[in-house]
């Protein structure tokens, strides 16, 4: 049965044919000379079969290789005209079809679904004005705020170039040298690092985006998806056991839950901040190692997402899905967060490598509204845009959000009446600087948010991985990062791995941190 969301060709019953559609009566037959002689080159059926098999694999994703996915619907439940002119968000009750892919990050495509890792939570929202991708994780913060560190950090979780083994020294060597990662490490080594399936966890944009109105005004926005089933987690022991017994636990439980008629659902919320509030905020809003406290910036519900349809064909509908934070729609823009800015490039770049130049034409990626532009041809073109000229023509012009058949005429719907800030450089200055500000939110988790049982789980979860570190210097440096969060936290981990206690890492005071000035679009020192 074809999927309801994605048009993939595949009748349930059909005549067996070669790839050019010629019927074949015996799938296992290979033409050969006589009874025991060599095979014949003329046997297209056999060569077709083997040659296609030889080419079945496409590159796996360099990160987030292991995944699971489903289709469903996102409905907007609020009137959002006060903050954006995006047509999809402006109409209460409006629905869009979505495709979601969940994933682990570091492992290969055959790795265990219950590994301690953030989970990817990528959503393709098919609006009438283009596909809008939310390429989120299940943690509100991230390890880095300097995008140049991403390949280094990811390499520490891949295999050692010589031993071809994963290596705890590599992982903790990186983290100790880059202590801005500590907030994410607090979350990752709590039980949130091992969610109980993909459909019982929250999702977060992490980055700040800008949601605009026609008049050029905007709010900084972060998106949260909260699972109606709650954020269920596994203990370290349960996750380890499942990794051995059922490495596909996440894929299976998502599929079975939908198949059994219990579609998982998420409520969608946003946090917003005006540019003026951003200037007064204690943290830099372009730093995704920080959260925005809910007390100061309350969650506002905007919608609900339900996943009620399993793919009919995993490869076509999930593996070939190509998500990118740069697949945006009118009145939604990226902020100047340097990690987000780098991602805008990286995803389409890797898709062109993984899926080809025309990755947007694959059924799962193709927008529901017609695409009209001057891109033509290339390998595997399916949509050639007919006879329409391949340049900006006055004879058969494209409409630019105006009246049909005119280049200039009509209201230009998606034009903003006023422009916003000018971006000025200098954003790179402070990215690597670590100050006392970086330890406040991790400390709040340890001292205020967690109870005794959660603190103990954290210590034990860390210890089970950290005990694999062989190098003394790496061990001491990371213990000093934990001591900068809280001395008792560091001492408890040291005790659990049988290491001596260490003093806190020395960092600059919070008053020396570089602050964000939204009206200039630059960073300035306070
Ligand atoms: C996947 C790069 C940070 C979420 C990927 C892929 C690349 C990549 C190359 C593979 C895409 C594919 O082959 O289809 C980067 C870079 C980053 C970064 C360069 C920082 C400089 C982040 C952050 C988040 C995130 C901060 C979340 C807030 C995801 C997700 C996927 C992914 C969910 C999987 C998408 C899917 O299911 O197809 N990333 N990433 N990444 N990334 Fe990132």
TrEMBL record:
Residue stretches in coiled coil: none
EC number from the UniProt entry: 1.11.1.6
Molecular-function GO terms, alphabetical: catalase activity; heme binding; metal ion binding
Family annotation (SMART domains): Catalase
A Pfam cross-reference name: Catalase
Catalytic-site annotation from UniProt: 64, 137
Domain of life: Eukaryota
Cofactor(s) listed: heme
Residue span(s) of domain Catalase core: 17-399
Binding residues for heme: 347
Signal peptide: none
Entry protein name: Catalase
